[in-house]
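User: Reviewer 2 asked us to show a designed sequence for the structure in our supplementary figure. I'm pasting the C-alpha cells here. Could you produce the per-position amino acids so we can include them in the response letter?
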C-alpha cells in the first residue's frame, strides 16, 4: 500500500529500522563480538554503549543486552544516510564473518536484503495499469 502511495522512502526506512532492531535482539550478548568486528570498538567504547542500560548491580541484564546492541547499530547505520541497501548489505557481510554467524539460521536479514534490492521494481509495478 505504501508503494502504491509512492512512499518508497518510508518503506525503506521501515525495513531499515526493522533490520536494526531485529538484528540487535538476535545478537543479544554477542553484540560485543559484532561491535569489535564492525566498528573496531575498544572495551571503553563498548562499555559506554552499555552504561545507560546497567542495572543497580552495575551490569547489563542478559535479557536487556539487545539495548546497547540497538544503540550501536542505530548510530552505525546513520553513516549510511539514505543508502539503506549498502547498510543492510554490509550488516549481512559482517554477520557472516562472526565465529558462529547468526545468518546461517536466521533468514530475516537475507529476506530484507532481497526486498530492498527489489524496491525499485516494486515501486514501478505499483503504478502499472492493468
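Assistant: Here is a per-position design you can include in the supplement:
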Amino acid at each position: 500500500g505504501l508503494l502504491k502511495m509512492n512512499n518508497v522512502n518510508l518503506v525503506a526506512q521501515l525495513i531499515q529500522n526493522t533490520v536494526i532492531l531485529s538484528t540487535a535482539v538476535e545478537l543479544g550478548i554477542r553484540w560485543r563480538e559484532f561491535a569489535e568486528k564492525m566498528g573496531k570498538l575498544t572495551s571503553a567504547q563498548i562499555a559506554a554503549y552499555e552504561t545507560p542500560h546497567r542495572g543497580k548491580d552495575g551490569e547489563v541484564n542478559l535479557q536487556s543486552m539487545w539495548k546497547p546492541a540497538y544503540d550501536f547499530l542505530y548510530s552505525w547505520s546513520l553513516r549510511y544516510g539514505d543508502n539503506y541497501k549498502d547498510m543492510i548489505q554490509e550488516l549481512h557481510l559482517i554477520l557472516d564473518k562472526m565465529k558462529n554467524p547468526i545468518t546461517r539460521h536466521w533468514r530475516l536479514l537475507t529476506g530484507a536484503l532481497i526486498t530492498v534490492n527489489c524496491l525499485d521494481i516494486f515501486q514501478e509495478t505499483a503504478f502499472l495499469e492493468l
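For the response letter, you might also mention the following. The radius of gyration is 17 Å. The helical segments are 8-27, 31-39, 43-50, 66-77, 84-96, 108-117, 119-126.
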